[in-house]
Design goal:
single chain; alpha/beta; Nucleotidyltransferase, domain 5; five-stranded mixed β-sheet; about 40% helix
Length: about 200
């Protein structure tokens, strides 16, 4: 159950234009990292918002459309595979969330971030562990980021069908590791990740 900011003692008063931001794709071995930022419209509440990991794919898709239609503002941004490799995945996730929040129009008065770290930005903000289960704006952002990234990996499956990206979305499943060991990595694999490096050694 989402707790409103007024009822959660850890969350300060956030003003009228509260944005939530979250990312998707820190764990996968392949694909861009996605982040989203959302300002919800208090006059158009969206029922069923929750941590995207707790929702079915069908439910996430339906909520994705509602959020895009009814939010005051939303943005989806990425950090590329190359940026993940160059910066490390933590810094890349901070960069993607920064890009998403800074692209919002109107500009948020306060930003709530899922996790325990804040990106480098000028917003008044707070980092909240398990924020995607506590603040509806973060929940909405987590849904946008997750659905957008899953769609991206479906497209990558069309380009690289041998890896099964449509099934595991780039996560290090048994199937994915087996395909890596058989074929080596492709363009969208994160070369800084140890399983990718090990697989390429295995196939070289």
């Amino acid at each position: 159950m989402i707790i409103s900011p007024e009822r959660d003692p850890e969350i300060p008063y956030m003003g009228n234009l509260l944005a939530g931001t979250d990312e998707a794709g820190r764990g996968p071995l392949a694909g861009d990292l996605y982040a989203a930022a959302v300002i919800l419209d208090p006059d158009k509440p969206i029922a069923g918002l929750d941590d995207s990991k707790k929702l079915s794919a069908k439910r996430r898709e339906a909520l994705f459309d509602k959020i895009c239609e009814q939010a005051l503002a939303w943005n989806i941004s990425i950090a590329t595979v190359e940026e993940v490799d160059q910066l490390n995945v933590l810094q890349a996730s901070m960069l993607a969330m920064q890009r998403a929040a800074e692209a919002l129009n109107p500009v948020p008065e306060f930003v709530a971030v899922d996790g325990n770290r804040l990106p480098k930005w000028s917003f008044a903000s707070i980092a909240l562990v398990k924020g995607d289960s506590r603040v509806t704006e973060i929940s909405a952002a987590s849904i946008l980021a997750k659905v957008a990234r899953d769609r991206h990996m479906q497209e990558m499956h069309q380009a690289y069908p041998r890896y099964g990206f449509d099934k595991h979305k780039g996560y290090p499943t048994k199937q994915h590791i087996e395909m890596l060991r058989e074929f080596g990595s492709c363009r969208i694999h994160r070369q800084s990740y140890r399983p990718v490096q090990q697989a390429d050694l295995f196939t070289s």
